[in-house]
Specification:
Blueprint lengths: L4 H31 L3 E10 L5 E12 L3 E3 L1 H11 L2 H22 L7 E6 L1 H5 L3 H12 L6 E6 H6 L1 H13 L3 E7 L6 H6 L4 E4 L1 H5 L5 H16 L3 E4 L5 H9 L4 E2 L13 H7 L4
Parallel strand pairs: 2-4, 4-5, 5-6, 6-7, 7-8, 8-9
Antiparallel strand pairs: 1-2, 1-9, 2-3
Helix pairs in contact: 1-2, 3-5
Bound molecules: ligand C2E and calcium ion (3 copies).
Organism: Solidesulfovibrio magneticus (strain ATCC 700980 / DSM 13731 / RS-1) (Desulfovibrio magneticus)
Protein name: Signaling protein
Length: 281
């Protein structure tokens, strides 16, 4: 009969099988791609909102796939997290970004106050060798640790609050900064936040998007900035696309920001010009 329980089970299993097969082939493809040097980093500038001066860059992974073209991280990071390939990929992103940046700083000696932000995934954060990997990337590249900022999402911190506190302590003791990414989406516990040695809160793009349409979102952003100030942290807004959004963020006292209004993520070869101009284009 149609829709008998056993049929449903078979359909379900087939669906699972298909998904598992797709993830397996994506995983193999990523492994091949990493060996073939198809992965690279683009850099999105971060600016001081009050002056428009350059503050630093966020490193974002890209995959230049032979058939698919440029693939964005939203399409492969979740699969990489699931399969455990994120350790190799995250390691690559961190070392590559540190190397690119150390080289860049050598050719622009006057501007070596510019920071590099690198994203760290939940799985990387939970693994015990993260601090060794960070030390290696810094040591090998020669990047001054004070210029490196690691971005950890609010949800991964809240998933492992005790472990996060220990790792954050270890990272901070090296002189490296910590930013809480996607802030406002992860149900933070204020008591956890207060105990962590943080430097920055990054307001999630979803709030910035709705800043001009929704007074509630505007109030959320105001509350995040107030919280950030009271914890003596810097606030970064991401996904600024319009000058109206920029105006509101400025008036709310948000210190730093990034978004398509000022610049999309750039190829490493385009960074020296931006550093020289030192302004939101
Ligand atoms: P994220 O850390 O929240 O990064 C911000 C994302 O917003 C980036 O997407 C960036 O290109 C995009 N963006 C910046 N400005 C604007 C804007 O004005 N409008 C819009 N609509 N988008 C903007 P991207 O590069 O696709 O990265 C997506 C996510 O993938 C990142 O979100 C981050 O969670 C993850 N990711 C990227 N690189 C890495 C990496 O090296 N390691 C890990 N673990 N995750 C990474
Ligand atoms: Ca980020
Ligand atoms: Ca973010
Ligand atoms: Ca995000």
């Amino acid at each position: 009969a149609k829709n008998s329980p056993s049929e449903k089970i078979i359909v379900f299993e087939n669906g699972m099988h298909e998904l598992a097969m797709r993830n397996l082939s994506l995983q193999n493809d990523m492994r091949r791609g990493l060996e073939a040097h198809e992965f690279f980093i683009v850099y999105q500038p971060i600016f001081f909102l009050s002056t428009g001066e350059l503050y630093g860059f966020e490193a974002l992974l890209r995959w230049s796939h032979p058939q698919r073209g440029i693939v964005s991280p939203g399409e492969f990071i979740p699969a990489a997290e699931e399969s455990g390939f994120i350790y190799e990929l995250g390691n690559f992103a961190l070392t590559k970004a540190c190397n690119d940046f150390a080289k860049l700083l050598k050719t622009s000696p006057k501007d070596n106050e510019i920071t590099l932000s690198v994203n760290i995934s939940t799985k990387q954060l939970a693994k015990d060798n993260l601090i060794d990997i960070i030390e290696y990337a810094i040591g090998k590249s020669g990047l001054p640790p004070g210029l490196l900022i690691l971005e950890i999402t609010e949800s991964s911190i809240m998933e492992y609050p005790d472990k996060s506190a220990k790792i954050i302590d270890a990272i901070k003791s090296k002189g490296i900064g910590i930013a809480v990414d996607d802030f406002g989406t992860g149900y933070s516990s204020m008591s956890v936040l207060q105990k962590l040695k943080l430097d920055k809160l990054k307001i999630d793009m979803s709030f910035v998007n709705r800043l001009t349409e929704s007074s509630e979102d505007c109030e959320i952003v105001r509350a995040i900035i107030t919280l950030s100030n009271s914890l003596h942290l810097q606030t970064v807004a991401e996904g600024i696309e319009t000058s109206e959004q920029l105006q509101i963020l400025r008036s709310l006292g948000c210190e730093l920001g990034q978004g398509y209004l000022c610049s999309k993520p750039l190829d490493v070869k385009d960074l020296p010009l931006l550093i020289t101009q030192n302004a939101c284009p």
